[in-house]
Amino acid sequence: MARLTANGIGIEYDIHGPEGGEPIVLVMGLGAQMIRWSMDMVGDLARRGYRVVRFDNRDVGLSHRFEDAPPPSIGDVATAVREGRRPDAPYFLSDMAADAAGVIEGLGLGSAHVVGASMGGMIVQMLAAEHPHRVRSLTSIMSTTGNPTLPPAKPEAVAFLVNRGPDPHQELDAFLEHGLKSARVMAGPAGLYDEAAERAGIEASFRRAYYPVGFLRQYAAILGSGDRREALRRITAPTVVIHGADDPLVPVEGGHDTAACIPGAEMHVLDGMGHNIPAPLVPTVCDLIERAVRRAA
Questions:
Q1: What pLDDT tens digit does each residue of the chain (297 aa) get?
Q2: Which Gene3D superfamilies match (predicted)?
């Protein structure tokens, strides 16, 4: 792994695949490190000839931590948005999109095919809207638009989202079990997830960089950014939207709304997929990413 300066901050990244391959930049979701993009998926894309870039978003993993900003009040941020006021948040999705643009620039790519999952989908949407010269194609996975009229997440999914579990420094086994319970819920009723791989991923993330306060600032960035539909209507990049039919955290209507707002976007609903990218569906997801790439060509 390596580090560069993007948008004025330090960003940790890695690269896989042939040097001459078309670049694909993967942007991960809320509170998740870049290593949560599975090597099955990264390897699949690399074997197809793409140059695959992963990076840690700000405030997670080994990238810059905004330690001078106090933990935001999520309730205050949500109230400000409902009342039409600018919330008091350390940064917003547009700032995180500028980070991604800085990564593409800093690596000398010029532009790239961008893929985002969940919050990462929101980031790459804003990247395509606000930095169109950096985006060749856009793939938005299990994400949404900020439209306040869309169906909410299921209560059990929200409960695991906001409860980060026991302190792993004190109770590692309990922390891992909490993470596995969350993964089971997020997988939806089909339960497509690999428990052993999930447990290994949770533990690897803890041992690499445990920084839960960053999650709060990222969550505030999502809520504080509000309704982004007007920005999405400005996107010109060829776009593919992917969503699980059984997503309990971001209901599939969020994907439909994303596709409806982005001119010319394709919508693909995957049966059996929840708020995750299970191993059996990795080839399908990679096929759809490649579909966006080919649309750009």
A1: 799 999 999 999 999 999 999 999 999 999 999 999 999 999 999 999 999 999 999 999 999 999 999 889 989 998 998 898 989 999 999 999 999 999 999 999 999 999 999 999 999 999 999 999 999 999 999 999 999 999 999 999 999 988 888 999 999 999 999 999 999 999 999 989 999 999 999 999 999 999 999 999 999 999 999 999 999 999 999 999 999 999 999 999 999 999 999 999 999 999 999 999 999 999 999 999 999 999 999
A2: alpha/beta hydrolase (3.40.50.1820)
Of 58, 91, 63, 94, residue with least CA distance to 77: 91
Exposure string of 164-184, with b = 16+ CB inside 10 Å and e = fewer, is: bbeebeeeeeebbebbbebbb
d(C-alpha 42, C-alpha 28), whole Å: 13
How many of the other CB atoms lie within 10 Å of CB of 196? 8
Return the HEC string of the chain.
CEEEEECCEEEEEEEECCCCCCEEEEECCCCCCHHHCCHHHHHHHHHCCCEEEEECCCCCCCCCCCCCCCCCCHHHHHHHHHCCCCCCCCCCHHHHHHHHHHHHHHCCCCCEEEEEECHHHHHHHHHHHHCHHHEEEEEEECCCCCCCCCCCCCHHHHHHHHCCCCCCCCCHHHHHHHHHHHHHHHCCCCCCCCHHHHHHHHHHHHHHCCCHHHHHHHHHHHHHHCCCHHHHCCCCCCEEEEEECCCCCCCHHHHHHHHHHCCCCEEEEECCCCCCCCHHHHHHHHHHHHHHHHHHC
Query: pTM score, two decimals?
Result: 0.97
d(CA 192, CA 281): 9
